[in-house]
Known about the structure:
Layout: E1 2-13, E2 16-27, E3 31-35, H1 42-49, E4 57-62, E5 66-68, H2 83-94, H3 107-114, H4 116-127, H5 146-159, E6 164-167, H6 176-191, E7 195-200, E8 210-213
Parallel strand pairs: 3-7, 3-8, 5-6, 6-7
Antiparallel strand pairs: 1-2, 1-4
Helix pairs in contact: 2-4, 2-5, 3-4, 5-6
Amino acid sequence: MKIVEASGLGLRTRRGWVYRDVDLTAETGELHAVTGPPGSGRTSLLLALAGRFPHTDGELRRRGPAALGQVAGVHEPDPTLTVAEHIQERLLLLGPVPRRRRQLVPVAAVRARRAYRRDAFAAAIAGAGLTDAPLDPDRYGRDLTPVERQVLGLVLASLSGPSLIVADDVDAGSDAPEREWIWAALARLADQGYAVVASARAVEPGATAVVHRIGDPTLPTPALVAPPAADDQTPEVHA
């Protein structure tokens, strides 16, 4: 099933193009990578795909809810909360598993949301398929490494049972083994049935991702557009 479809997507400001002419279709179970140099508009594009940022050109359709992983300056860990507290807080905010037939929640997310009173951390990590994740439940948000931030963001995103998960700059601040692990983790999320779109400067060799490179070096790089604060409400179809 096609989860997000972008055709000729672009964002233009008075300073010029942030990104333009992007064609991207992500289906259930697929991992897509958006690559490009700094200032190429990767973050703005990812947020637009998730319904959290506008676009000025082209068409965009999305089926089902989207969830944000780590997006610096928009969706980041709270420095004063531990990893376990982040998970408990998210589960409490999500509330009981909905019983409406139209809103299907993956079994893994259901188990995590029912286990928040017992062992939310273990249930959430297992539900995301990241039991080998380098993540300490007692570590505070302010102390997390770049790869730990990415892992926590992916775990939190999976709890709501979205159709689409997006994560930004997944290779930032990490070494080669960490980059290899994070791309494998993203692939595992896709294998669970999510459509996953991640941005990076480059894709790690051997990663099973459909690559979309944006940013024309012949174009002037516009000033970065400050994205809006993220929330948990995403419309099912955005055009």
